[in-house]
Amino acid sequence: MRGIPSRPAGSVEVITGSMFSGKTEELIRRLKRALLARQRVQAFKPRIDTRYDVTRIVSHGATAIEAVAVATSESLEARVAEDTDVVAIDEAQFFDAGIVQTCERLANRGVRVIAAGLDQDYLGRPFAPMPELMAIAEEVTKVRAVCAVCGGTACRSQRLAPEATTVLVGGTESYEARCRACFEPRDVPRTAG
Ligand SMILES: Nc1ncnc2c1ncn2[C@@H]1O[C@H](COP(=O)(O)OP(=O)(O)O)[C@@H](O)[C@H]1O
Ligand SMILES: Cc1cn([C@H]2C[C@H](O)[C@@H](COP(=O)(O)O)O2)c(=O)[nH]c1=O
Ligand SMILES: [Zn+2]
């Protein structure tokens, strides 16, 4: 028979939804509570996302927490200290596929992993590696924004910029939150007139 584990079990929590839905704010809220509980926390973000700050995770509402920018899941995992209790990952959709196994390994060794990221891209397609992360997570929280067109509950990210690449880092100049009915999945925005 197996004995009682000496360390609490780790877990994976995913916070997901469209842009502006409060994913980063929720991530920061959970981290602040962990810090209040005197847990050892490490926060990471992908190096690609330097929109607001290089060394902090910053929400659209300007709340922020210290973070390390890393280029790959391998580099993230290598930086997690032996005694870390909580690992936070923002913009998880920008990481390589290895982030899923990284989260698994960290959780298996007792770490509470909290990953926030987009569930869908600008065309409404699942944004890898988020579907796999959601599949292995103990807990998935979907958060919602306010539709910029009708004021309803938004679940999609409408791209306003003409670029047709999946990755296009940006904020309100390039995207707005929209509900299913107001969302228009298209690569090139309609011209006026
Ligand atoms: N359409 C919108 N719906 C909801 N919040 C919005 C919207 N546009 C701007 N915001 C702001 O964005 C904040 C959420 O930012 P953030 O946590 O960074 O979201 P996410 O990480 O999901 O993009 C809200 O508290 C609000 O201040
Ligand atoms: C829909 C979509 C978004 N992005 C980018 C735009 C932003 O830089 C991030 C999302 O940030 P947020 O904290 O969730 O607001 O992702 C992208 O590259 N491709 C897309 O299809
Ligand atoms: Zn709408």
From TrEMBL:
- What InterPro entries is this protein classified in? P-loop_NTPase, Thymidine_kinase, Thymidine_kinase_CS
A GO MF label: thymidine kinase activity
Give the top-rank taxon of the lineage listed in the UniProt record for this protein: Bacteria
User: Where does the chain bind ATP?
Assistant: 17-24, 90-93
Q: Where in the cell is it found?
A: Cytoplasm
Arranged from A to Z, the UniProt key words for this protein are:
ATP-binding, Cytoplasm, DNA synthesis, Kinase, Metal-binding, Nucleotide-binding, Transferase, Zinc
User: What protein is this chain from?
Assistant: Thymidine kinase
Q: Which gene encodes it?
A: tdk
